[in-house]
Amino acid sequence: MALLTFLLRRILLGIGVLWIISVAVFAMFFIAPHDPARLLAGKEATPQTVALITHRLGLDKPVLVQYGDFVVRLLHGNLGYSYYNSEPVTQLIASRLPVSASLAIGAAVLWLLIGEAAGVLAAARPRSFADRVVTVLSLFFYSMPPFLLGVLLLYFLFFRLWVSGIHAFPGSGYVPLQSNPLQWARYLFLPWLTIALGSAATYSRLTRSGLLEVLGQDYIRTAHSKGASGQRVLFVHGLRSALTPVVTQCGIDLGVLLGGVVITENIFGLPGLGALAVQSITTQDLPVIIGIVLLSSFFVVAANVVVDLVYTVLDPRVQAR
Amino acid sequence: MTRDVSPSAVADVADVARSGQAVQGRARSIEGLSPWQLAWRHLRRDRLAIVSAVIILIIAASAIGAPLFAAITHHAPNHQFIVAGLTPDGLPRPPSGQFWLGTDDLGRDVLVRIAYGARISLFAGVVAALSAVCIGTIIGMSAGFLGGVVDTVLSRAMDVVLSMPFLLFAIALVAIVGPSLWVALGVIVFFSWAAVGRVTRGQTLSIKETEYIEAARAGGSGTARIMFVEILPNVVAPVIVYTTLLIPASIAFMATLSFLGIGVVPPTPDWGNMLAESLQFYKVAWWFVLFPGLALLLTTLAFNLLGDAVRDALDPGAERIFGRM
Q1: Would you say residue A226 lies in a domain?
Q2: Best residue in B6, B48, B163 to probe A by mutation, most A CBs within 10 Å?
Q3: Model's pTM, two decimal places?
Q4: CA-CA 20 to 30 A from A142: which of A283, A292, B225, B228?
């Protein structure tokens, strides 16, 4: 029961946050010094045409009425139409979302694999050579801005290999999962790596510090004295409780990434939400920008709620909170 | 690499004990060391911290001395050497005696531009981080100490900022007001203060309940005095730790904004926009990509290493080694 009220409270808070963000986005849209009607009508339109379009878009109504319309449309799942090609924004987003989702989920799998392996390796023998190597690499990749890592991967793993006749990883493009899973993974590998290497640094640190803390506790000694093997203690007894913060972090990171990975998508020419957002700036396509911002805020808020729920399931001790 | 968590706590106790003995060994007077002195000792003995500090000083020196680079090479940062700086095909020239780190796509000197770019990176990193920390500390402290409605409003504000997809928001904002250094700085501060605020609020909440606050109140101190004289000194340590993390993050953030064309506007040199320009030439001009990238990486790496050492020195029992980017 306490869990249910807690969850309900979190969801309501999340809705509140989304509402404030929607107001902020709408205000930005409204304050914008651009006249969407003029933009739509084209350069040689008569004032009458512009006025007609202004009226059709409802831009001649008072601000509050416009905001009301905006909210009503939003609640009906209608994000308006692109200024640029008149497509419904929801349709545009729906066509781009699979790309961003493929990118985010694949990267998450990769960073969990790398980060957890490195973290466990480092924690199993603290201050060993392996631990130092992991620490240095973590710091290196953590300090690397994602766009720099992307460019470096593009240079070495695409261009240098390509020059020497190895066409292992394409430098740009996207193949949908349903048309060819193998090509899908091949085209996404470098983008995945770009995101994953930087994040894996955080996860290896998180796992290492979590594990070291857990391994110092009494029940670990008990497990050892019961005769459990070192590996069993490390993976079954230790990792189980060290994973809780990792799961939390992963949920939040995934929520952030689902809304579009601006930089990686741009470097590798992936037609995802982030690339669409950047493209919409050049065309000043505000409905599209607003739609993407709202959707990605929703992902962040939803991820936070889900993480809270998972947290209480994984670690019953926090229910007391 | 000794930026550890729990195991180093033991080592730190030993360190403290040893340094205590050293002080007594000198035996002029037996003096207690303040936590700051202990932290300073710890930091001074950290070889990596010293190396990182030296690297940062070198970068700062080249930022300040950027005109010197221009004077020595006789290359102004924005001057386009159409003949000497470009190959007959109009491509960038590789590093040579005349252009030490090569030229870019417009025949400009990469070395001089990197030196000038250091100005913006360091300026943006330090100014944005310090502003965000000041705002975050004051707001976090107010939320934690004043409680009630103030806390509710400020905490929700932090929630909202932390839930915003910052890069997309920055893009949308710049689409409306147009790109400039100051807009980019504002964006960085706007999306950085909330995390500081959250940390400070948590700290303040626990300090608020201690006896010495009660004592100060009984002694007749007002709200403002308690907040700034009693509480502030006790939240400074985590705030400093956070600042050292925020500087490299802000430098990377600024470079990212410039890279996307929504930060520093060309032709003003900035590591981010240099890298953006070089991206079209990475197949023919490796130096054009490599050197600005190296400058950026070295700077963030040095700040992160130093930050880690500061964190280790100030707060040996710290839970996390790296925060989120």
Answers
A1: yes
A2: B163
A3: 0.81
A4: A292
